[in-house]
Amino acid sequence: MRRFMIERDLPAVGSLEREELRAAAAKSNEALAQLAPAVQWVESYVADDKTFCVYLATDEDVIRQHAEISGFPANRITEIRRSIDPSTASA
Questions:
Q1: What's domain 2-82's superfamily in CATH?
Q2: Average per-residue pLDDT in the chain?
Q3: Alpha-helix residue ranges (DSSP H) falling in the chain
Protein backbone atom coordinates (compact mmCIF):
# COMPACT_ATOMS: atom_id res chain seq x y z
CA MET A 1 0.00 0.00 0.00
CA ARG A 2 1.14 3.50 -0.80
CA ARG A 3 0.62 6.52 1.50
CA PHE A 4 -1.25 9.60 0.25
CA MET A 5 -2.23 13.03 1.55
CA ILE A 6 -5.68 14.10 0.33
CA GLU A 7 -6.58 17.76 0.49
CA ARG A 8 -10.34 18.33 0.60
CA ASP A 9 -11.88 21.79 0.17
CA LEU A 10 -14.86 21.82 2.56
CA PRO A 11 -16.13 25.31 3.40
CA ALA A 12 -16.53 25.89 7.17
CA VAL A 13 -15.55 22.32 8.06
CA GLY A 14 -13.53 23.70 10.97
CA SER A 15 -16.70 24.98 12.63
CA LEU A 16 -18.58 21.67 12.52
CA GLU A 17 -19.77 20.28 15.83
CA ARG A 18 -18.54 16.94 17.15
CA GLU A 19 -21.73 15.15 16.07
CA GLU A 20 -21.41 16.50 12.53
CA LEU A 21 -17.80 15.30 12.36
CA ARG A 22 -18.89 11.91 13.70
CA ALA A 23 -21.51 11.65 10.94
CA ALA A 24 -18.93 12.61 8.30
CA ALA A 25 -16.53 9.96 9.61
CA ALA A 26 -19.31 7.36 9.53
CA LYS A 27 -20.13 8.27 5.92
CA SER A 28 -16.45 7.94 4.98
CA ASN A 29 -16.23 4.58 6.76
CA GLU A 30 -19.20 3.28 4.74
CA ALA A 31 -17.41 4.16 1.50
CA LEU A 32 -14.16 2.62 2.78
CA ALA A 33 -15.97 -0.64 3.55
CA GLN A 34 -17.13 -0.85 -0.07
CA LEU A 35 -13.57 -0.42 -1.34
CA ALA A 36 -11.68 -2.52 1.23
CA PRO A 37 -8.98 -3.70 1.30
CA ALA A 38 -7.72 -1.34 -1.44
CA VAL A 39 -7.92 1.79 0.75
CA GLN A 40 -7.56 2.63 4.46
CA TRP A 41 -8.06 5.91 6.29
CA VAL A 42 -5.21 6.67 8.71
CA GLU A 43 -6.12 10.12 10.09
CA SER A 44 -7.34 13.57 9.14
CA TYR A 45 -6.54 17.12 10.20
CA VAL A 46 -9.38 19.64 10.15
CA ALA A 47 -8.63 23.29 9.28
CA ASP A 48 -11.04 26.17 8.73
CA ASP A 49 -12.11 25.35 5.17
CA LYS A 50 -10.40 22.07 4.35
CA THR A 51 -9.23 18.76 5.66
CA PHE A 52 -5.90 17.03 5.14
CA CYS A 53 -6.39 13.27 5.18
CA VAL A 54 -3.74 10.55 5.26
CA TYR A 55 -4.75 7.36 3.47
CA LEU A 56 -3.11 4.09 2.56
CA ALA A 57 -4.21 2.95 -0.88
CA THR A 58 -3.20 0.82 -3.81
CA ASP A 59 -3.37 3.86 -6.13
CA GLU A 60 -4.94 7.29 -6.68
CA ASP A 61 -7.92 5.83 -8.54
CA VAL A 62 -9.30 4.10 -5.44
CA ILE A 63 -9.02 7.40 -3.53
CA ARG A 64 -11.05 9.07 -6.28
CA GLN A 65 -13.61 6.25 -6.03
CA HIS A 66 -13.87 6.88 -2.29
CA ALA A 67 -14.44 10.59 -2.95
CA GLU A 68 -17.20 9.80 -5.43
CA ILE A 69 -18.97 7.30 -3.14
CA SER A 70 -18.64 9.38 0.03
CA GLY A 71 -19.40 12.73 -1.57
CA PHE A 72 -16.26 14.31 -0.07
CA PRO A 73 -14.05 15.95 -2.69
CA ALA A 74 -10.45 14.92 -3.26
CA ASN A 75 -9.20 18.26 -4.58
CA ARG A 76 -5.54 17.33 -4.40
CA ILE A 77 -4.00 13.88 -4.00
CA THR A 78 -0.28 13.74 -3.24
CA GLU A 79 1.72 10.58 -2.72
CA ILE A 80 3.88 10.75 0.42
CA ARG A 81 7.35 9.48 -0.47
CA ARG A 82 8.98 9.73 2.94
CA SER A 83 8.37 11.18 6.37
CA ILE A 84 10.71 12.99 8.70
CA ASP A 85 10.45 14.23 12.27
CA PRO A 86 12.80 15.80 14.83
CA SER A 87 14.55 12.47 15.41
CA THR A 88 15.63 12.41 11.74
CA ALA A 89 18.31 15.01 12.62
CA SER A 90 20.03 12.59 14.97
CA ALA A 91 19.99 9.55 12.73
A1: ORF SCO4226, nickel-binding ferredoxin-like monomer (3.30.70.3090)
A2: 97
A3: 18-35, 60-70
